[in-house]
Amino acid sequence: MFSLTPVPFRSLQFLNISCDFDRETASAPDIPQQFKGLFSSADALRQVKLSGMTNPQILGIPWSQLDRLFLEGLRSWRNTFAILRRLARAVRVDLLFIGEGEYEKDGDEEEDDDGTSIVWPHVRTLNVECFSHGGTARLLGLLNAPNMQTLMLSNTADPFADSSSFILFFLRTPLPLQQLTMSVQNIDSGFSNVLRQIPSLLQLHLEEIRSITDDFLHSLVYDSQNQSSVLLPDLTTLNLDWWWYGDFLPLNLDLMSEVIQSRSGGIFTDGQVSNRIGPIQKARIHLGSFEGSKKEVALRAEKFARFEDSLVSFCSQHHLDVDLDLARLLRVRMAD
Q1: pLDDT tens digits for range 95-122
Q2: H helices of the chain, where?
Q3: Cα 79 from Cα 56, distance rounded (Å)
Q4: d(CA 287, CA 245)
Q5: What H or E segment, with its residue span, contains residue 207?
Q6: How many Å apart are CA 109 and CA 1, to the nearest integer?
Q7: Which of 127, 290, 303, 312 could lock 152 by a disulfide, CB 3.0 to 4.6 Å apart?
């Protein structure tokens, strides 16, 4: 057996190591002991990207001096959290496919640690994708990142069991969030209460939607009667992506149109001009496939076309510079 003498990578600033790993079985290779401490002298290292390994801590990477960290395919929560707790200077963290398969196979006991908080004083962006069930809640439950401005939870199971748990997260750690991206199946008044904890939000991107209640849409509509209670008063970008196989009819198109019209450029249905809210500058609504009989599909397509035409006409009439991106899947699935 041979060993490697640590190389003084004094000028190394960017490190990218990728190992083959099977996302289906969540299997990843161990880094051989010969590589222990290999990058311990990389004093200039600022950005690290590691994919598909079980024990990256063996490399001796100076985690505390990194500005950016990208981890993909790490099976061990204990190892991952040990690394995350050392990010004293990082401004962006990306975590993909962490703990895949382990949560279900080994349960909580194997990966229990001391519960010490993960403190990120400088992190402004956290991107989490494809966590295993309960993984996001476990991370956010330990996280203290007072300067975070962008939180992305894409292709990730609901981070908390209910909206009250999510509210507690924001109450425990108030964040100056400006952008929130997350997968939310059912958007209702409970989710409205979550968003009320982050009034600074400028961009809201919701994915894999299956239903949006009228209560939620009503909370976004601005009029002279609710100036102080309108949801997300500074919102400039609204992005709604429907579940691929979902039907769009649970969305009240008339009410959705009222949301955009009432918050576009200070033109309101009651004739009032407001300086209390910021105008929506971009609205992106991508709906799911249309289902039903041939007649039902035709009626739904016609309803969506009227919705699109009314918004385009409204923006043109009031000379509003609103970036509208409205679409539905071209594939139509007919019911038997």
Answers
A1: 987 765 444 444 444 444 568 899 999 9
A2: 77-84, 102-106, 135-142, 163-172, 189-195, 214-220, 253-262, 294-317
A3: 8
A4: 9
A5: strand 203-209
A6: 35
A7: 127
